[in-house]
Backbone:
């Protein structure tokens, strides 16, 4: 069974930075296109960025130029470096593969950006 464990969230002031990590177990991690998703209160979960097995990346317009996704296949881990954070980035952040079939969702990590 695949397990995803997100960490690294916290409370930060606007303009600050955080680095999130997502450790995966129970899967051949390296072949998966992995993404970071977020869900703000009262809103649907959205994909904000993803990275292919080969390292190609995509970003939602709302985070382009501020967030950077990366992965370490040897460690089965995907990272999200978030800079210049804004209050509208406040959400629970999750990782999962980008597919029609998701793995079971982890608990996520809360990111709160104060103005």
Residues:
């Amino acid at each position: 069974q695949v397990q995803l464990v997100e960490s690294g969230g916290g409370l930060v002031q606007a303009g600050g930075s955080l680095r999130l990590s997502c450790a995966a177990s129970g899967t051949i991690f390296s072949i998966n296109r992995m993404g970071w998703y977020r869900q703000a209160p009262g809103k649907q979960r959205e994909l904000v960025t993803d990275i292919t097995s080969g390292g190609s990346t995509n970003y939602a317009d709302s985070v382009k130029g501020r967030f950077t996704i990366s992965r370490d296949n040897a460690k089965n881990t995907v990272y999200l470096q978030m800079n210049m954070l804004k209050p509208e980035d406040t959400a629970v952040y999750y990782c999962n593969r980008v597919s029609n079939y998701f793995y079971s969702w982890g608990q996520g990590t809360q990111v709160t950006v104060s103005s």
